[in-house]
């Protein structure tokens, strides 16, 4: 062949992929790759590119292969085991999670791009072909077993069959349910929901739900999504906190507290030692004032607020090594701890994800 076609990088796997994490990062840094702190690359994982930058605390799973000309991966990204990302230009935003066995590749052009925003998630067994480009906006989710195809070409164009190569654009806060098929040229605008097993083409308007083959809008704003009153938001958060406390208690944490201040004790016993760990959670349902005071802030692990937290208070919490979580702005501190991570997991069940700032 005149042009060498890329194959599975067996040589890279045997020479670099099997190395321990710290040696692998050393090798990649010697090659000029920018590798952040706290990056974890599992056994068999390989990255191959001309220009590579990986942010802090990113994890790459067992036997995952990432290949391209320019690869940019943000902070706190998680890419699951045995995934294969093979596109000339790859960009993955902070906090995004790509599950196991996701394939990005196939028929492409030299300028093909795969761009994923911050705080997205792509579930397992999804196949993405960025023939021209596939762009996914911040805070969007792609269900498992989805097919996102940037081309339709098999039968001859000279015999009258359609051959099409077009970019695909998925907006911010979009939900694509399991088993959906996204065709070339599709544009899904912000806040739209694509139903399970649907086939989307052309343009899907914002803040609507589209289902079927082809996907048609069956509900849109203001009927979907519905407006949520301030009273209902407080009710939701109280229910989530109640569920959170019950979940922690069932997992063995001792809990005491009232409506907005809770203390937890984790007691671990081993053969030769006994360790207690204490955590404290403060929950606020109303807006916080800039000059508000907080009792026992030095002992507080997590501050969870339904309303926007003023910048001055964010700085105060961080100075006391307390993690803050702001539901209204969908933001969290970069300071984190074990209790805060558990709180975030429970909030994710209700579709609330946070950007680190």
What does this structure look like?
- There is one protein chain.
- This protein is of the alpha/beta class and 357 residues long.
- The protein folds into two domains: 10-220, Hexapeptide repeat proteins (UDP N-Acetylglucosamine Acyltransferase, domain 1, 3 Solenoid), CATH 2.160.10.10; 230-356, no CATH class.
- The chain contains five helices and 36 strands.
- The strands form five sheets. Strands 2-5-8-11-14-17-22-25-28-29 form a ten-stranded mixed β-sheet. It has a nine-stranded parallel β-sheet with strand order 1-4-7-10-13-16-21-24-27, covered by helices on one side.
- The radius of gyration is 23 Å and the shape is globular.
- The model has no long low-confidence stretch (mean pLDDT 93).
C-alpha Rg, in Å?
23 Å
CATH homologous superfamily of the largest domain - what is it?
Hexapeptide repeat proteins
* Lateral arrangement of strands in the main beta sheet: 2-5-8-11-14-17-22-25-28-29
CATH top-level class of the largest domain: Mainly Beta
Q: Which word captures the global form?
A: globular
- Overall structural class, as computed from helix and strand content, comes to alpha/beta
Quote the CATH topology of the largest domain: UDP N-Acetylglucosamine Acyltransferase, domain 1
Number of helices: 5
Q: Any low-confidence stretches, pLDDT <50, length ≥5?
A: none
The biggest sheet amounts to:
10 strands, mixed
The number of E-state strands comes to 36
Report the span from N to C terminus. 49 Å
> Percent of residues in beta strands?
25-35%
Task: Indicate how many domains the architecture comprises.
Answer: 2
- The second-level CATH architecture of the largest domain is 3 Solenoid
